Amino acid sequence: MADVLGAFEQAVLIAVLRLGEGAYGRAVLKEVQSRLDREVVPGAVHATLDRLERKQLVSSRTGTGTPIRDGRARRFYTVEAAGVTALNDARAAWQNIWRGISRPLKAKA
Amino acid sequence: MKNPADAAAPPAPPATPPGWATRLLAFVTPPELEDCVAGDLLEQYRDTIVPSRGVRGANRWYAAQAMRAVWRTAGVFLAAALILHMWREAIDELVLTDDYHLRSYVLTYGMIGIAVATGLRAGWRSGRISTGVAAAGAVSLFGWSGAWMVAALLAIAVPDVLYPGGIAELLFLPFMTLPLVLALGAIGAAVGKIGRPAR
Asked: Do A69 and B199 touch (CB under 8 A)?
């Protein structure tokens, strides 16, 4: 099994999968924030997307700018086949870790 | 009834984040990501932050995002340089010795290592040698500010404290060593830029 993805990397990759054609930085940020139910720093999402692209788990293309962005282009991301494999591996790893443990866990009194 | 003067008023221009923060952010962002990172932040700034926090609050938010980007690039080295200089200044003033060589070696080679490592990381992250050079210089001066702070505190707390190196050394050495620091930062940044994986 290749490198198992970290929890945040999984959240970002799944957000890109869910958003499909509309997966650009800010949309991914909103999706991750809503799924994790906490404030996420925009820089963390950009850094993670950049790292995932260097690992060739996602690819990107540059879109067009909009007035609210002063014409600055959006970068749209797509999950590559290696990204899907990495997500499946990560899920299998978590399932292995939790196998045999009944949930929810109870603390010893 | 609407005031005719209001109807004729042109729409207010959209809020704009502080220029220094925008430039700082661009300086630490890889060129290929500059447009999308700045665009995403500007979109969030105008779309959600300004309506919820007002322009001043939104400007603070934007500045914080730029500072976080700087911290991710050089934060660990800023902290290391600060601690190293504060340690050296404090023991020089409080623990007198006949032989300052060991302390000098630790500070000198520590700062050489920090300058090269800062340049390396900044060059690797940003893909720019200029960012590595500037980061190394900023880290060095920030480190020296720790020595100034310790010297000032000791001057207040211990009035008869000795300054073995002299106050002049403390004030001039940071600027005398700056060219060397910038050169070391440039070397580190060049290595970082070359070793940067292609997108």
From this structure: no
Q: What is the pLDDT of residue B189?
A: 97
* pTM score, whole prediction: 0.81
Is A46's Cβ below 8 Å from some Cβ in B?
yes
- Contact map slice: B 68-87 vs A, CB within 8 A: 68-69, 72
Does the distance separating the beta carbons of B36 and A75 come in below 8 Å? yes
Burial, B149: exposed, middle or buried (Cβ in 10 Å; 0-12, 13-18, 19+)?
A: middle
How many of the other CB atoms lie within 10 Å of CB of B169?
Answer: 13
Per-residue pLDDT of chain A (109 residues; tens, 9 = 90+): 456 789 999 999 999 999 999 999 999 999 999 999 998 989 899 999 999 998 999 999 999 888 899 999 999 999 999 999 999 999 999 899 988 888 788 887 6
Interface predicted TM-score (ipTM) over 0.90: no
Distance CA(B4)–CA(A97), nearest Å, equals 70
- Residue owning tokens 């500070």: B107
Residues of B in contact with A73 (CB under 8 A): 35-36, 39
Q: Which of A43, A50, A65 sits opposite B39 (nearest CB)?
A: A65
